Amino acid sequence: MDCRVIGMWGGFPKKNGPCSGYLIQHEGFSLLIDCGSGVLTELQNYIDLNDINHVILSHYHYDHFSDIGAYLFSRLVNTHLGRVGEELIVYGPADEDMKRQVEDVAYSRFTSFSEKSKLEIGPFTCTFMRNIHPVETYSIKIECDNKSIVFTSDTSFKHDLISFAANSDLLITECSLYEGIDGVGSGHMTSELAGILAYQSNAKKVLLTHLPHYGDLNDLLDSAKKQGNQNIELAEPGMLIEL
Ligand SMILES: [Zn+2]
Ligand SMILES: [Zn+2]
Fold first, then answer.
1. Where are the domains of the chain?
2. Centre of ligand 1 from the C-alpha of residue 83, in Å
3. Architecture, CATH, for domain 2-242
4. Is 47 within 8 Å of 54 (Cβ atoms)?
5. Which ligand is nearest to the CA of 10?
């Protein structure tokens, strides 16, 4: 299973730097996790848009889903042009507007998930945990071939994250805030809490993501590593992790 970071900025994109998007691939099957602002243009450096099999959206904040409308339009046009005839499923928290938007496009349908869902998507088994965030948001675990990837999406720290991410081969944890800032009200985590999650979950490899647009990002890394897990890096667009 491979994971390609497409974008990792929190809140809004940077110049040539997209928000949340991760391309998970195994034996020719491609699953896009999140489709935030800027993802669609960066994604095309790595894959033809028609070759995405399915999409999972962790929640409906623009930095995680705003490019899905443009993606659906690309499927519509490319379907008319005969370039794609495969069914696309967009998975996300239950939402009537999203369902309507997806199902207006031929060969596309919307499937909602919740904390109890266990989805078999191509070769991947996906399970979910409800986050602490202002809108309905889920952490996502993707398992395939005895490997696991856990993506926290946006959340304040909760202890259940430790068991959800336990022994994951790759933990992609949000790290929106510098150490010392209180993230509880905004529904985000500091570098210190991301580091505690990385250490206590015993994740084999960790990426800090959903990064802030200010300060020295290396301070996030130092703060997270200080908690004990040394196998931590800052996520960057284009980064490929092969598991
Ligand atoms: Zn976000
Ligand atoms: Zn959010």
1. 2-242
2. 32
3. 4-Layer Sandwich (3.60)
4. no
5. 1
